[in-house]
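Researcher: Going back to the complex we discussed earlier. I've cleaned up the inputs and rechecked each line, so this should be the final set. Can you rerun the prediction on the complete assembly and write out the structure?
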Amino acid sequence: MSYWKDIAVGGWSLVEGLAVTVKHLFRPVVTVQYPRRRNEIPEAFRGHIEFIKFKETGTHKCIACGSCEKICPSNVIKVQGEKTQAKGPKVATHYVIDFTRCSLCGLCVESCPTKTLRFSREYELAGTSRYDGVIDLMARLEQQKA
Ligand code: SF4
Ligand code: SF4
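Model: Rerun complete. Updated structure for the full complex:
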């Protein structure tokens, strides 16, 4: 008896599965053919941090104050700067983050006094080593168009 019951249950399961397949056969396709087509990234998306390039100066406004470095709970920011004028503020010369340990908390962006940090729209990061997650913000700024 159990033998025939197993066959009936298996057959019914097959019919149910096929019904789902046939139902979706005539519905519009909802999957996106990435990478040929891409969805809009939501406004709230957070990629790794990057410098904003300001139109008036054509560069960032980082004064290497170290606020972001100190507030970062993951301790992944390293920033260095130098003074170009005796009385002026410092200018950042090195800015590196280890994105593999960043929690995207946003404290660095919020604490920046010159508002020169933002979250990038980058979502295609890949690497074969954990060091590939170390991002040089100065080099990245060079690649930015505007
Ligand atoms: S988003 Fe948070 S964890 Fe990531 S670098 Fe900024 S302060 Fe650090
Ligand atoms: S808080 Fe802003 S200005 Fe200060 S070091 Fe970080 S990015 Fe530069």
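Model: Worth noting: The radius of gyration is 25 Å.
Researcher: Good, that matches what I expected from the previous run.
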